[in-house]
Specification:
By secondary structure, the chain is of the alpha/beta class. 42% of the residues lie in helices and 19% in strands. It contains 14 helices and 16 strands. Strand 9, helix 12 and strand 10 form a beta-alpha-beta unit. Helix 2 runs antiparallel to helix 5 and helix 6 packs parallel to helix 7. The N and C termini lie far apart (59 Å). 48% of the residues are buried. The mean pLDDT is 94.
Length: 418
């Protein structure tokens, strides 16, 4: 296979399909989505068999535990994929929406119309559900998609992609509107991120190595997602029961996700009350605690944390802990060490909580809730294309609106400029 020729062909097909999708009706797009949801449920056994093939190869190749966790597709996981697609179908269609229409002194009306971005290239690792999520969101937002999943999920990705193309054709839309790159050759990524004539935006979903490569090599604008070093901060007025419950969920529900808490901050005034029961819970669940000097004095089995620990996304049963003087130090610590993904405060002090919301510089900031809620499905977006830690174009979970832009529209009646 000539990789350059192959990718150029995908690009040309995607660009042509994007023109058709931009004019597709809401009914056509929803028909394709509902067909896809039904097909996912219909072919559940085949999808799980394809995933089992991927998992066997991954374990044989020594894939990291966190990545194996992300790669694993379950019976419930297929149902969740289908439900996510159906939820996208129920969402309002953003395309063509006109807002901010205002009369100007000249008599013309000026406003904005929401339109698709065009062709979106999505590069992701391990998670097969991204194929369905990305296809659904791109389709509903009127965008064509070129999907390049990780080699470790190639069998499951191909199986899901075949169902997507079946659904597109059943709705009278071009099958080329969603294409999965068939080769695992890394050179395909190099072509995809430089095809400015065919691709409008790149969305990477992967580890630091992938993001670093794309930042260095991409010639196409990106909606990027770096690592998820998320924090939970227990303020002096935190309810102990809520604190325990939230930390347990944020850290231990799943270790391999980007919205898992990796750092815990505790106010000094409440540390001797809040930390011991939380430390016992974490230890009972096999979580290694790496703490500051004060943490180690309160939690005998804690290991001494290094500076690097506070910057680290572990994706493993490890958590860094620091005792802080108060909200000022907590906010300063988070803004320095976090990846600006998701942070949570546990407190009954409402004014202080609102200050935390304003001053913490992250894509999602929460009061008295687990960081695990930072997710497009949980936010009511149906599904997400990714979680952006950028500030330009989209931030946080990227759903339909994040896959569109606005153009100016002018409404006149023979008006001319004097």
């Amino acid at each position: 296979m000539d990789i350059k020729d192959y990718m150029q062909t995908l690009g040309r097909q995607a660009r042509a399909a994007s023109r058709r999708l931009a004019s597709a009706t809401t009914a056509e797009k929803n028909a394709a989505l509902l067909h896809l949801a039904a097909a996912l449920r219909r072919d559940k056994a085949a999808l799980l068999a394809a995933n089992a093939e991927d998992l066997a190869a991954a374990r044989a190749n020594g894939l990291e535990t966190a990545l194996v966790d992300r790669l694993t597709l379950t019976d419930k996981g297929v149902d969740n994929m289908a439900e996510g697609v159906e939820q996208v179908a129920k969402l309002p269609d953003p395309i063509g929406e006109m807002t901010d229409i205002k009369y100007r002194p000249t008599g013309i009306q000026v406003g904005r119309m929401r339109v698709p971005l065009g062709v979106i290239g999505i590069i992701y690792e391990a998670r097969p559900n991204v194929t369905a999520d990305a296809a659904a969101l791109c389709l509903k937002s009127g965008n064509a998609a070129i999907l390049r999943g990780g080699s470790e999920a190639i069998h499951c990705n191909r199986a899901i992609a075949a169902l997507v193309q079946e659904a597109l054709q059943a709705a009278g839309l071009p099958a080329e509107a969603v294409q999965v790159v068939a080769t695992t050759d890394r050179a395909a990524v190099g072509e995809l991120i430089t095809m400015r004539e065919f691709v409008d935006v790149i969305v990477p979903r992967g580890g630091k190595g992938l993001i670093a490569r794309l930042l260095a090599e991409s010639r196409v604008p990106m909606i990027q997602h770096l690592d998820g070093n998320c924090h939970v901060y227990l303020e002096t007025q935190a309810d102990p029961a809520k604190a325990l419950k939230i930390v347990e969920n944020a850290k231990t529900q799943r270790y391999g996700t980007c919205n898992t808490a990796e750092s815990l901050l505790v106010d000094r005034a409440a540390a001797t009350t809040l930390l011991p029961p939380i430390a016992r819970m974490l230890s009972e669940k096999g979580v290694e605690i790496r703490g500051c000097t004060e943490t180690c004095a309160i939690v005998p089995n804690a290991m001494a944390a290094t500076e690097e620990d506070y910057y680290t996304e572990y994706l493993a049963p490890i958590i860094s802990v620091k005792v802080v003087a108060g909200v000022d130090e907590a906010i300063a610590h988070i803004n320095q060490y976090s990846s600006h993904h998701t942070e949570a405060i546990v407190t009954d002090n409402h004014p202080l909580a609102m200050r935390f919301l304003r001053e913490v510089d992250s894509a999602s900031v929460m009061i008295n809730a687990s960081t695990r809620f930072a997710d497009g499905f949980e936010y009511g977006l149906g599904a997400e294309i990714g979680i952006s830690t950028d500030k330009i174009h989209a931030r946080g979970p990227v759903g339909l609106d994040g896959l569109t832009c606005q153009k100016w529209v002018v409404l006149g009646d023979g008006h001319v400029r004097s």
